[in-house]
Amino acid sequence: MSLFDEFSFIHKIKPTKILHSELITPIGDDASVYKVLDGARQVVCVDTMVEGVHFLKEFSTPEEIGYKGLAVNISDLAAMASIPKYYLISIAIPPHWKEEEIIGIYQGMAKLAKTYMMDLIGGDTVSTGDKLVITVTVIGEIEKDHIGLRSNAMPGDVVFVTGTLGDSAAGLDLLLKKVSVRDPNISHFLINRHKYPSPRVKEGRYLSKMERVALNDISDGLASELHEIAEASQVSIKIEFRDIPKSKEILTLREDLIEKWVLFGGEDFELVGTASVDSWSFIKKIAKENDFQISKIGIVEKGPAEVWLQRDKVEQKLKKSGYNHFKQDR
Ligand SMILES: Nc1ncnc2c1ncn2[C@@H]1O[C@H](COP(=O)(O)OP(=O)(O)OP(=O)(O)O)[C@@H](O)[C@H]1O
Ligand SMILES: Cc1ncc(C[n+]2csc(CCOP(=O)(O)O)c2C)c(N)n1
Ligand SMILES: [Mg+2]
Ligand SMILES: [Mg+2]
Ligand SMILES: [Mg+2]
Protein backbone atom coordinates (compact mmCIF):
# COMPACT_ATOMS: atom_id res chain seq x y z
CA MET A 1 0.00 0.00 0.00
CA SER A 2 3.02 2.37 0.05
CA LEU A 3 2.06 3.97 -3.31
CA PHE A 4 -1.35 4.89 -1.93
CA ASP A 5 -1.73 8.54 -0.95
CA GLU A 6 -4.70 9.26 1.27
CA PHE A 7 -5.31 12.78 0.01
CA SER A 8 -4.92 12.12 -3.72
CA PHE A 9 -7.18 9.07 -3.30
CA ILE A 10 -9.95 11.25 -1.84
CA HIS A 11 -9.52 13.66 -4.76
CA LYS A 12 -9.93 10.79 -7.24
CA ILE A 13 -13.16 9.44 -5.75
CA LYS A 14 -14.74 12.87 -5.17
CA PRO A 15 -17.93 13.03 -7.32
CA THR A 16 -17.75 15.63 -10.08
CA LYS A 17 -21.48 16.17 -10.11
CA ILE A 18 -23.74 16.89 -7.14
CA LEU A 19 -27.32 15.71 -7.55
CA HIS A 20 -28.96 17.67 -4.71
CA SER A 21 -28.76 21.45 -4.65
CA GLU A 22 -29.46 21.30 -0.88
CA LEU A 23 -25.87 20.12 -0.36
CA ILE A 24 -23.79 23.03 0.98
CA THR A 25 -20.40 21.34 1.52
CA PRO A 26 -19.56 18.29 -0.55
CA ILE A 27 -16.45 16.15 0.12
CA GLY A 28 -13.51 18.30 1.19
CA ASP A 29 -14.25 19.71 4.65
CA ASP A 30 -14.41 18.29 8.18
CA ALA A 31 -18.07 17.34 7.74
CA SER A 32 -20.80 17.61 5.17
CA VAL A 33 -23.54 20.22 5.57
CA TYR A 34 -26.89 20.21 3.80
CA LYS A 35 -30.22 21.98 4.02
CA VAL A 36 -33.19 20.04 5.34
CA LEU A 37 -36.82 20.80 4.65
CA ASP A 38 -37.42 23.40 7.36
CA GLY A 39 -34.33 25.38 6.35
CA ALA A 40 -32.04 24.25 9.20
CA ARG A 41 -28.59 22.79 8.41
CA GLN A 42 -27.57 19.27 9.30
CA VAL A 43 -23.90 18.36 9.69
CA VAL A 44 -22.72 14.76 9.24
CA CYS A 45 -19.36 13.06 9.30
CA VAL A 46 -17.71 9.71 9.91
CA ASP A 47 -14.25 8.62 11.08
CA THR A 48 -12.86 5.14 11.62
CA MET A 49 -10.46 3.87 14.27
CA VAL A 50 -8.46 0.69 13.67
CA GLU A 51 -6.65 -1.36 16.29
CA GLY A 52 -2.90 -1.04 15.74
CA VAL A 53 -3.29 2.16 13.69
CA HIS A 54 -5.23 4.44 16.07
CA PHE A 55 -4.93 2.57 19.37
CA LEU A 56 -3.28 -0.45 20.99
CA LYS A 57 -4.91 -2.73 23.52
CA GLU A 58 -1.55 -2.83 25.35
CA PHE A 59 -1.84 0.75 26.52
CA SER A 60 -5.48 1.81 26.24
CA THR A 61 -8.47 0.49 28.16
CA PRO A 62 -11.76 -0.14 26.32
CA GLU A 63 -13.27 2.97 27.99
CA GLU A 64 -10.36 5.11 26.77
CA ILE A 65 -10.70 3.74 23.22
CA GLY A 66 -14.44 4.44 23.23
CA TYR A 67 -14.04 7.95 24.62
CA LYS A 68 -11.49 8.86 21.98
CA GLY A 69 -13.45 7.26 19.13
CA LEU A 70 -16.39 9.54 19.81
CA ALA A 71 -14.28 12.57 20.78
CA VAL A 72 -12.42 12.71 17.45
CA ASN A 73 -15.74 12.72 15.61
CA ILE A 74 -17.27 15.41 17.83
CA SER A 75 -14.11 17.37 17.03
CA ASP A 76 -15.08 17.39 13.33
CA LEU A 77 -18.51 18.76 14.29
CA ALA A 78 -16.75 21.45 16.37
CA ALA A 79 -14.62 22.26 13.31
CA MET A 80 -17.79 23.20 11.42
CA ALA A 81 -18.91 25.26 14.48
CA SER A 82 -21.93 22.98 14.90
CA ILE A 83 -23.93 21.51 17.79
CA PRO A 84 -23.49 17.71 18.30
CA LYS A 85 -26.77 15.78 18.46
CA TYR A 86 -26.65 12.07 17.52
CA TYR A 87 -24.16 9.27 16.84
CA LEU A 88 -24.11 5.82 15.21
CA ILE A 89 -21.50 3.08 15.76
CA SER A 90 -20.40 0.43 13.32
CA ILE A 91 -18.09 -2.10 14.93
CA ALA A 92 -16.17 -5.02 13.37
CA ILE A 93 -15.08 -7.39 16.14
CA PRO A 94 -12.26 -9.96 15.87
CA PRO A 95 -12.27 -13.12 18.03
CA HIS A 96 -9.75 -11.88 20.62
CA TRP A 97 -12.08 -9.11 21.87
CA LYS A 98 -14.47 -10.14 24.68
CA GLU A 99 -18.01 -8.86 24.89
CA GLU A 100 -17.31 -7.08 28.19
CA GLU A 101 -14.46 -5.18 26.53
CA ILE A 102 -16.74 -4.05 23.69
CA ILE A 103 -19.30 -2.94 26.27
CA GLY A 104 -16.47 -1.00 27.95
CA ILE A 105 -15.89 0.84 24.66
CA TYR A 106 -19.57 1.82 24.60
CA GLN A 107 -19.35 2.97 28.22
CA GLY A 108 -16.42 5.25 27.30
CA MET A 109 -18.49 6.72 24.48
CA ALA A 110 -21.61 7.08 26.61
CA LYS A 111 -19.68 9.09 29.21
CA LEU A 112 -18.66 11.66 26.62
CA ALA A 113 -22.03 11.55 24.84
CA LYS A 114 -23.70 12.57 28.10
CA THR A 115 -21.46 15.65 28.35
CA TYR A 116 -22.54 16.74 24.87
CA MET A 117 -26.15 15.52 25.16
CA MET A 118 -25.75 13.11 22.23
CA ASP A 119 -28.05 10.16 21.60
CA LEU A 120 -26.78 6.87 20.21
CA ILE A 121 -29.30 6.22 17.41
CA GLY A 122 -27.95 3.16 15.62
CA GLY A 123 -25.04 1.26 14.16
CA ASP A 124 -23.95 -2.12 12.90
CA THR A 125 -22.13 -5.14 14.38
CA VAL A 126 -20.06 -7.57 12.31
CA SER A 127 -17.23 -10.06 12.81
CA THR A 128 -13.76 -9.61 11.35
CA GLY A 129 -10.48 -11.49 11.17
CA ASP A 130 -7.83 -9.74 13.15
CA LYS A 131 -8.16 -6.08 14.20
CA LEU A 132 -11.01 -4.25 15.90
CA VAL A 133 -12.48 -1.51 13.68
CA ILE A 134 -14.79 1.16 15.10
CA THR A 135 -16.57 3.53 12.74
CA VAL A 136 -18.38 6.44 14.31
CA THR A 137 -20.88 8.62 12.46
CA VAL A 138 -21.93 11.86 14.13
CA ILE A 139 -24.76 14.21 13.28
CA GLY A 140 -25.01 17.84 14.33
CA GLU A 141 -26.87 21.01 13.53
CA ILE A 142 -25.91 24.53 12.65
CA GLU A 143 -27.58 27.84 11.92
CA LYS A 144 -27.58 29.07 8.35
CA ASP A 145 -24.55 31.21 7.36
CA HIS A 146 -22.40 30.37 10.38
CA ILE A 147 -20.45 27.37 9.15
CA GLY A 148 -16.70 27.15 9.85
CA LEU A 149 -15.65 26.26 6.31
CA ARG A 150 -12.01 25.63 5.43
CA SER A 151 -12.59 27.87 2.41
CA ASN A 152 -13.54 30.93 4.51
CA ALA A 153 -10.02 32.37 5.04
CA MET A 154 -9.25 35.76 3.46
CA PRO A 155 -6.08 37.82 3.12
CA GLY A 156 -5.63 40.06 6.16
CA ASP A 157 -7.16 37.48 8.56
CA VAL A 158 -5.64 36.45 11.87
CA VAL A 159 -4.68 32.74 12.18
CA PHE A 160 -5.52 31.25 15.57
CA VAL A 161 -5.48 27.92 17.47
CA THR A 162 -7.27 26.77 20.61
CA GLY A 163 -5.51 25.08 23.55
CA THR A 164 -1.90 23.92 23.32
CA LEU A 165 -0.33 21.83 20.55
CA GLY A 166 1.94 18.78 20.51
CA ASP A 167 0.87 17.28 23.86
CA SER A 168 -0.99 14.34 22.32
CA ALA A 169 1.91 13.32 20.06
CA ALA A 170 4.31 13.61 22.99
CA GLY A 171 1.94 11.45 25.08
CA LEU A 172 1.87 8.84 22.30
CA ASP A 173 5.68 8.73 22.11
CA LEU A 174 5.72 8.19 25.89
CA LEU A 175 3.25 5.31 25.54
CA LEU A 176 5.30 3.84 22.68
CA LYS A 177 8.43 4.26 24.83
CA LYS A 178 10.13 6.38 22.17
CA VAL A 179 10.87 8.95 24.87
CA SER A 180 10.90 8.90 28.64
CA VAL A 181 10.20 11.50 31.30
CA ARG A 182 11.23 11.32 34.94
CA ASP A 183 8.45 13.46 36.40
CA PRO A 184 5.27 11.31 36.62
CA ASN A 185 3.05 14.44 36.65
CA ILE A 186 4.40 15.46 33.25
CA SER A 187 3.98 12.04 31.67
CA HIS A 188 0.48 11.74 33.19
CA PHE A 189 -0.52 15.11 31.71
CA LEU A 190 0.79 14.30 28.21
CA ILE A 191 -0.64 10.76 28.09
CA ASN A 192 -3.98 12.13 29.26
CA ARG A 193 -3.94 14.65 26.42
CA HIS A 194 -3.42 11.73 24.01
CA LYS A 195 -6.13 9.53 25.47
CA TYR A 196 -8.72 12.17 26.31
CA PRO A 197 -8.80 14.88 23.65
CA SER A 198 -11.33 17.64 24.44
CA PRO A 199 -13.42 18.43 21.38
CA ARG A 200 -13.65 22.22 21.18
CA VAL A 201 -17.41 22.44 20.75
CA LYS A 202 -17.86 25.44 23.07
CA GLU A 203 -15.10 27.32 21.24
CA GLY A 204 -16.62 26.44 17.85
CA ARG A 205 -20.00 27.72 18.98
CA TYR A 206 -18.58 31.07 20.13
CA LEU A 207 -16.60 31.35 16.91
CA SER A 208 -19.78 30.72 14.90
CA LYS A 209 -21.08 34.07 16.16
CA MET A 210 -18.47 35.84 14.02
CA GLU A 211 -19.57 37.02 10.58
CA ARG A 212 -17.02 34.70 8.90
CA VAL A 213 -14.63 32.15 10.33
CA ALA A 214 -12.51 29.41 8.73
CA LEU A 215 -12.04 26.31 10.89
CA ASN A 216 -10.30 22.95 10.77
CA ASP A 217 -9.61 20.53 13.60
CA ILE A 218 -6.10 19.21 14.10
CA SER A 219 -6.09 15.46 13.51
CA ASP A 220 -3.11 15.09 11.17
CA GLY A 221 -0.96 17.91 12.57
CA LEU A 222 -0.91 21.72 12.43
CA ALA A 223 1.11 21.90 9.18
CA SER A 224 -1.26 19.55 7.35
CA GLU A 225 -4.42 21.34 8.55
CA LEU A 226 -3.04 24.80 7.69
CA HIS A 227 -2.33 23.54 4.17
CA GLU A 228 -5.94 22.37 3.92
CA ILE A 229 -7.19 25.88 4.80
CA ALA A 230 -4.67 27.49 2.41
CA GLU A 231 -5.73 25.17 -0.43
CA ALA A 232 -9.48 25.48 0.20
CA SER A 233 -9.28 29.30 0.48
CA GLN A 234 -6.48 29.86 -2.09
CA VAL A 235 -4.44 32.01 0.28
CA SER A 236 -0.97 32.03 1.78
CA ILE A 237 -0.58 31.47 5.51
CA LYS A 238 2.31 32.71 7.63
CA ILE A 239 2.82 31.49 11.19
CA GLU A 240 5.34 32.28 13.91
CA PHE A 241 6.71 29.24 15.79
CA ARG A 242 7.19 31.20 19.04
CA ASP A 243 3.49 32.13 19.11
CA ILE A 244 2.21 28.55 18.90
CA PRO A 245 0.86 27.77 22.39
CA LYS A 246 2.75 24.98 24.15
CA SER A 247 1.99 23.45 27.55
CA LYS A 248 4.47 23.97 30.38
CA GLU A 249 4.74 20.18 30.49
CA ILE A 250 5.88 19.80 26.88
CA LEU A 251 8.33 22.65 27.29
CA THR A 252 10.35 20.50 29.73
CA LEU A 253 11.20 18.11 26.86
CA ARG A 254 13.77 18.21 24.03
CA GLU A 255 13.46 21.18 21.65
CA ASP A 256 13.77 19.21 18.38
CA LEU A 257 11.06 16.80 19.55
CA ILE A 258 8.78 19.67 20.62
CA GLU A 259 9.03 21.14 17.12
CA LYS A 260 8.17 17.80 15.50
CA TRP A 261 5.21 17.16 17.82
CA VAL A 262 3.81 20.69 17.60
CA LEU A 263 3.97 21.03 13.80
CA PHE A 264 3.51 17.48 12.53
CA GLY A 265 2.43 15.25 15.45
CA GLY A 266 -1.36 15.35 15.12
CA GLU A 267 -4.30 14.19 17.24
CA ASP A 268 -4.36 17.50 19.11
CA PHE A 269 -8.04 17.86 18.25
CA GLU A 270 -7.69 21.57 18.83
CA LEU A 271 -9.24 23.99 16.34
CA VAL A 272 -7.12 26.01 13.94
CA GLY A 273 -8.74 28.79 11.97
CA THR A 274 -8.82 32.32 10.69
CA ALA A 275 -10.98 35.39 11.35
CA SER A 276 -10.93 39.06 10.38
CA VAL A 277 -8.86 41.46 12.51
CA ASP A 278 -12.09 43.03 13.87
CA SER A 279 -13.52 39.64 14.81
CA TRP A 280 -10.22 38.70 16.47
CA SER A 281 -10.47 41.57 19.01
CA PHE A 282 -13.95 40.34 19.84
CA ILE A 283 -12.87 36.67 20.02
CA LYS A 284 -10.12 37.51 22.54
CA LYS A 285 -12.69 39.26 24.74
CA ILE A 286 -15.16 36.34 24.54
CA ALA A 287 -12.38 33.84 25.30
CA LYS A 288 -11.42 35.76 28.43
CA GLU A 289 -15.01 36.07 29.63
CA ASN A 290 -15.80 32.41 28.94
CA ASP A 291 -12.56 30.90 30.09
CA PHE A 292 -11.12 29.28 26.98
CA GLN A 293 -7.66 29.45 25.48
CA ILE A 294 -7.22 30.79 21.96
CA SER A 295 -4.00 32.25 20.55
CA LYS A 296 -2.98 34.19 17.46
CA ILE A 297 -0.23 32.28 15.64
CA GLY A 298 -0.05 34.06 12.29
CA ILE A 299 -1.67 35.90 9.43
CA VAL A 300 -3.29 35.20 6.08
CA GLU A 301 -1.87 36.84 2.97
CA LYS A 302 -2.68 37.00 -0.72
CA GLY A 303 -0.68 34.53 -2.73
CA PRO A 304 -0.33 30.86 -3.66
CA ALA A 305 -1.72 28.17 -1.35
CA GLU A 306 1.40 27.84 0.80
CA VAL A 307 2.26 27.82 4.48
CA TRP A 308 5.31 29.69 5.78
CA LEU A 309 6.89 29.25 9.19
CA GLN A 310 8.87 32.01 10.82
CA ARG A 311 11.35 30.99 13.47
CA ASP A 312 14.16 33.10 14.96
CA LYS A 313 13.56 35.65 12.18
CA VAL A 314 14.14 32.98 9.50
CA GLU A 315 11.23 32.17 7.23
CA GLN A 316 10.85 28.74 5.66
CA LYS A 317 8.17 27.02 3.62
CA LEU A 318 6.34 24.48 5.76
CA LYS A 319 5.76 21.17 3.98
CA LYS A 320 2.38 19.44 4.07
CA SER A 321 3.82 16.81 6.32
CA GLY A 322 1.96 15.12 9.13
CA TYR A 323 -0.09 12.00 9.54
CA ASN A 324 -1.03 10.55 6.14
CA HIS A 325 -2.31 6.97 6.16
CA PHE A 326 -0.13 4.88 3.76
CA LYS A 327 2.78 7.36 3.82
CA GLN A 328 5.77 6.75 6.01
CA ASP A 329 7.14 10.32 6.28
CA ARG A 330 6.51 10.52 9.98
N1 LIG B 1 -13.25 6.96 1.42
C1 LIG B 1 -13.87 8.15 1.27
N2 LIG B 1 -14.97 8.24 0.48
C2 LIG B 1 -15.62 9.44 0.36
N3 LIG B 1 -15.23 10.59 0.95
C3 LIG B 1 -14.13 10.55 1.74
C4 LIG B 1 -13.40 9.33 1.95
N4 LIG B 1 -12.37 9.60 2.80
C5 LIG B 1 -12.46 10.92 3.13
N5 LIG B 1 -13.50 11.51 2.49
C6 LIG B 1 -13.91 12.92 2.57
O1 LIG B 1 -12.75 13.73 2.29
C7 LIG B 1 -12.71 14.91 3.09
C8 LIG B 1 -11.42 14.98 3.89
O2 LIG B 1 -11.39 13.86 4.79
P1 LIG B 1 -10.35 13.72 5.99
O3 LIG B 1 -10.59 12.36 6.59
O4 LIG B 1 -8.99 14.08 5.50
O5 LIG B 1 -10.84 14.89 6.97
P2 LIG B 1 -11.02 14.80 8.54
O6 LIG B 1 -12.00 13.70 8.88
O7 LIG B 1 -11.32 16.17 9.01
O8 LIG B 1 -9.56 14.40 9.01
P3 LIG B 1 -9.12 13.11 9.88
O9 LIG B 1 -9.74 11.88 9.23
O10 LIG B 1 -7.64 13.16 9.78
O11 LIG B 1 -9.66 13.33 11.26
C9 LIG B 1 -13.97 14.85 3.95
O12 LIG B 1 -14.96 15.60 3.27
C10 LIG B 1 -14.35 13.37 3.96
O13 LIG B 1 -15.74 13.16 4.16
C1 LIG C 1 -0.86 2.89 18.12
C2 LIG C 1 -0.87 4.25 17.53
N1 LIG C 1 0.06 4.58 16.61
C3 LIG C 1 0.03 5.81 16.02
C4 LIG C 1 -0.92 6.73 16.38
C5 LIG C 1 -0.91 8.11 15.75
N2 LIG C 1 -1.97 8.35 14.79
C6 LIG C 1 -2.77 7.39 14.32
S1 LIG C 1 -3.93 7.99 13.27
C7 LIG C 1 -3.33 9.57 13.41
C8 LIG C 1 -3.94 10.73 12.66
C9 LIG C 1 -5.39 10.92 12.95
O1 LIG C 1 -6.15 9.82 12.49
P1 LIG C 1 -7.13 9.93 11.25
O2 LIG C 1 -6.41 10.68 10.15
O3 LIG C 1 -7.47 8.53 10.83
O4 LIG C 1 -8.31 10.68 11.76
C10 LIG C 1 -2.24 9.60 14.26
C11 LIG C 1 -1.45 10.81 14.62
C12 LIG C 1 -1.88 6.34 17.35
N3 LIG C 1 -2.88 7.17 17.76
N4 LIG C 1 -1.83 5.11 17.91
MG1 LIG D 1 -11.21 17.18 10.68
MG1 LIG E 1 -11.64 11.73 8.29
MG1 LIG F 1 -6.34 12.06 8.86
UniProtKB/TrEMBL annotation:
Keyword annotations from UniProtKB, A to Z: ATP-binding, Kinase, Magnesium, Metal-binding, Nucleotide-binding, Thiamine biosynthesis, Transferase
Protein name as it appears in the record: Thiamine-monophosphate kinase
EC number: 2.7.4.16
BP term (GO), one: thiamine diphosphate biosynthetic process
Residues binding Mg(2+) 5, per UniProt: 220
Binding-site list for substrate: 54, 267, 323
UniProt similarity note: Belongs to the thiamine-monophosphate kinase family.
Annotated positions binding Mg(2+) 4: 30, 76
Residues that hold ATP according to the record: 106, 123-124, 150, 219
PANTHER family: THIAMINE-MONOPHOSPHATE KINASE (PTHR30270)
Gene Ontology molecular-function annotations: ATP binding; magnesium ion binding; thiamine-phosphate kinase activity
UniProt cross-references to InterPro entries, sorted A to Z: PurM-like_C_dom (IPR010918), PurM-like_C_sf (IPR036676), PurM-like_N (IPR016188), PurM-like_N_sf (IPR036921), ThiL-like (IPR006283)
Catalytic activity: thiamine phosphate + ATP = thiamine diphosphate + ADP
Organism for this UniProt entry: Metabacillus arenae
Domain PurM-like C-terminal: 155-305
Domain spans labelled PurM-like N-terminal: 28-142
Binding of Mg(2+) 3, residues: 30, 76, 217
Binding-site positions, Mg(2+) 2: 47, 76
Role description: Catalyzes the ATP-dependent phosphorylation of thiamine-monophosphate (TMP) to form thiamine-pyrophosphate (TPP), the active form of vitamin B1.
